[in-house]
Amino acid sequence: MFSPQHRLDRPLEGGDHTLGNPSARLTLVQYGDYQCPYTARTIPVVAKILNRAGDDLWFAYRHFPLADIPPHAQQASEAAEAAAQGKSWKMHETLFQRLRQQDERHLDEYAESLGLDTNRYRREMDEHAHAEKVQRDRESGKRSGVESTPTFYMNGVRYDGPNEIEPLMEALRQSVQSSE
Q1: Cα–Cα dist 103/158, whole Å
Q2: What's the structural domain count of the chain?
Q3: Which of 18, 46, 65, 133 has the greatest count of CB atoms below 10 A from its CB?
Q4: What does the alpha-carbon distance between residue 53 and residue 58 come to, in Å, rounded to a whole number?
């Protein structure tokens, strides 16, 4: 279930987009690709986990765009970062709801519909202002042993089990018990 030889190369930090309690004794980090249907299937699962775990969990999503396959994966990750005008999680949800509609025109429409400062958003996208952050996440994933998306880490250790609610919840319980 766990792959102890594969550990996060960097802990959660200020540059990560997180949900939950930063003081929680349990962390869950997901590496994903906004055009990966397998990652998309885990989004409602993560939402249920966050709901069940409450204040006991701190969750982060990190970018791992699959460079060779999806045509707009890098661009979608940069768009999620450009939405950090208080709307990053809304953009995150939108992107996963629209896996096949992530070209520039659609991303611009999402930014506008979310109420982003579209001038700022477009400038950041044109300048690739967030490319370095996306690349940092991707490189961190590679050093941590990410081979595909989605990949989860619980308290810094890679989880290799099924990406379904009950197996993930059981692994989280085991992760807490082993850290006590």
Answers
A1: 32
A2: 1
A3: 65
A4: 9
CATH of the domain at 101: 3.40.30.10
Range of the domain at 32: 2-179
State yes or no: pLDDT of 171 exceeds 90: yes
Task: Provide, rounded to the nearest whole percent, the portion of the chain with pLDDT above 90.
Answer: 82
pLDDT in tens, 46-97: 999 999 999 999 999 999 998 777 689 999 999 999 999 889 999 999 999 9
Is 130:124 a contact under the CB 8 Å cutoff? yes
Cα gap 161→75, rounded to integer Å:
29
Residue 77: phi, psi to the nearest 5? Answer: -65, -40
pLDDT in tens, 133-164: 999 999 999 999 999 999 999 999 999 999 99
State the DSSP string of 12-72: --TTSEEEE-TT-SEEEEEEE-TT-HHHHHHHHHHHHHHHHHGGGEEEEEEE---TTS-TT
Residue 174: count other Cβ atoms within 10 Å of its Cβ. 14
Across-strand partners of 30? 61, 152
Pairing status of strand 2-7 against strand 157-159: antiparallel
In contact, 95 and 81? CB cutoff 8 Å: no
